[in-house]
Amino acid sequence: MRRFIFASSFLLILLSCKGSSSGSNNPDTSAERISASTVYFQQSTAIDLEVWYQSGAEPYVRRTALDRDLWQILRGNLTAIFQYRTVKPTLTIPSDLDAMNRLTAGSQENWSTEQILALWRANQMAAAPAGTSRFYVYFLDGYLNDQGASNKHVIGVQIGDYPVLAIFKPVIAASSQGALVIPKFMEQSTLVHEMGHALGFVNHGVPMQGNYQDTEHGAHSTDADCVMYWLNEGASDLQKFVQKLVVEENAVLWGQNVLSDAKALSR
Ligand SMILES: [Zn+2]
To answer: Where are the alpha helices (DSSP H) in 82-179?
Structure first.
């Protein structure tokens, strides 16, 4: 099973992501991946995200309806990636905790990808209606179990061929260094990044138009200005990144290559 993880390197405000393989060998260009991405970019009439969270791992949301809606960052970037569809899919992305679901699963120090899949199988709402592609994200009060140990640098993961993401909240919370604005935007940019993998980027189901895959790091872009870059490196780069989100309410985080791939596949 392949999984793609978005990591932060300890106290430095570093975002990084590395692809890793944990056993089975599904190539990124497998027929199944291409077929899933083709459905998203040619057939789905609706794209839904179900959000689940453990106590103590609540997603960041606006405090009142008058505040800026943080989840508009993910919603806006999904709108951008689907802009080339002839008939745009309806996007249903919750904004507030009352439209998200609390998990009853007890807290644990870390989670293996198999345990996250078991959590997904046990915690989902009614099946998606025909024509709807549904994705699931689990906010966990624990770390990724990376070969038997807690990996305290990994922020998020997208699991193999599944429409399943997880966010490791303690890693995000630890990034704040006193400025809450940083983890809030880091959380949203991680969601955009992991949804990018789930939709089929880079070369993870959506065929590439250009040669820009950072093969050394899996399904990532060589473009440092793209959210699908494996590492948004160093304080200055992230500063730029966070700045973009702070000042531009509708900042598009996808690089041009990713957008071109989406355009080429879209119908
Ligand atoms: Zn990644």
So the answer is: 113-122, 169-173
How far, in Å, is the centroid of ligand 1 from the Cα of 5? 5
Is ipTM beyond 0.95? yes
- Interval 12-38: pLDDT, tens: 333 445 444 333 444 455 888 999 999
What's the CA-to-centroid distance between 65 and ligand 1, angstroms? Answer: 32
Distance 64 CA to ligand 1 centre (A): 32
Using the mean position of ligand 1's atoms as its centre, give its distance from the Cα of residue 258 in Å.
13
Residues lower than pLDDT 50 in the chain: 1, 8-16, 18-27, 233-235
pLDDT of amino acid 265: 98
**What separation in Å is there between the alpha carbon of 214 and the centre of ligand 1?**
11
Q: Note the pLDDT of residue 29.
A: 56
Number of domains in the chain: 1
How far apart are the CA of 186 and the centre of ligand 1, in A? Answer: 14
Distance (angstroms) between ligand 1 centre and the Cα of 224 equals: 13
CA–centroid distance, 255 to ligand 1, in Å, is 14
DSSP for 5-72?
EEE--TTTT-EEEEEEE-SS---TT-HHHHHHHHHHHHT-SEEEEEEEE-TT-PPP--SSTTS--TTH
Asked if residues 230 and 218 have their Cβ atoms less than 8 Å apart, the reply is: yes
Preceding peptide of 246 cis, ω within 30°? no
In this predicted model, what pLDDT tens digit does every residue of 122-165 receive, in sequence order? 999 988 999 999 999 999 999 999 999 998 888 899 998 899 99
Kindly give the distance from the C-alpha atom of residue 194 to the centroid of ligand 1, in angstroms, as a whole number. Answer: 6
What is the whole-number distance in angstroms between the Cα of residue 240 and the centre of ligand 1?
19
Domain range for 168: 2-265
